[in-house]
Amino acid sequence: VQLQASGGGSVQAGGSLRLSCAASGRTFSSYVMGWFRQRPGKEREFVAAVTYSGGQMDYANSVKGRFTISRDNAKKLTTLQMNSLKPEDTAVYYCAARSDYYSPPSSVSAWPYWGQGTLVTVSS
Predict the structure, then answer these.
(1) Res 102: pLDDT
(2) What is the structure's pLDDT at 103?
(3) Are 91 and 37 within 8 A, CB to CB?
(4) What pLDDT is recorded for position 90?
(5) Which of 47, 50, 87, 89 is deepest in the core (most CB within 10 A)?
(6) Nearest of 81, 50, 87, 77 to residue 67 by alpha carbon
């Protein structure tokens, strides 16, 4: 599967952004989809994941209640709605895909497929 992320930009604190990840391939519904981010000077970290048919969503504690992940299997699209953005949300955001969901979603090495990053900048 190939992934293409888009939707990044600059926003003031308290604002919202919506990221999208378009997938290619015929078996999109057989992948768990996720979003990660890499803040300046930090390691890549888990943000959110959604399972095959959207029945389960998992979030990092830092974004719970503010971010919402969703997917549209017919359109092969995964979105990340980000509300109440904070300056500490500033990062390059990556979408990712994996076939299984046996290991924790936070394990970066468990995600073999990655899109290019999209930069989100939140100013105070």
Answers:
(1) 86
(2) 86
(3) yes
(4) 98
(5) 47
(6) 81
Count each helix (H run) and each strand (E run) in the chain, helices first.
0, 11
Rounded to a whole number of angstroms, the distance between the first and last alpha carbons of the chain is 37
> Consecutive 10-residue runs of the chain (124 residues): their mean pLDDT?
96 98 93 97 97 95 98 97 98 97 90 96 97
For the stretch 11-46, what's the b/e string if a residue is b when 16 or more beta carbons lie within 10 angstroms of its beta carbon? beeeeebebbbbbeeeebeebbbbbbbeeeeeebeb
CA atoms of 68 and 19, how far apart (whole Å): 10
Which among 64, 62, 49 is positioned nearest to 104, based on CA atoms?
A: 49
Both structure tokens of 65:
């209640």
Contact 90, 115 (CB under 8 A): no
Sheet holding 17-24, edge to edge: 2-6, 17-24, 77-82, 67-72
| Other CB atoms within 10 Å distance of the CB of residue 70 | 14
Identity of residue 91: A
Backbone angles phi, psi at 75, to 5 degrees: -95, -5
Where do we find the tokens 């599967």? 1
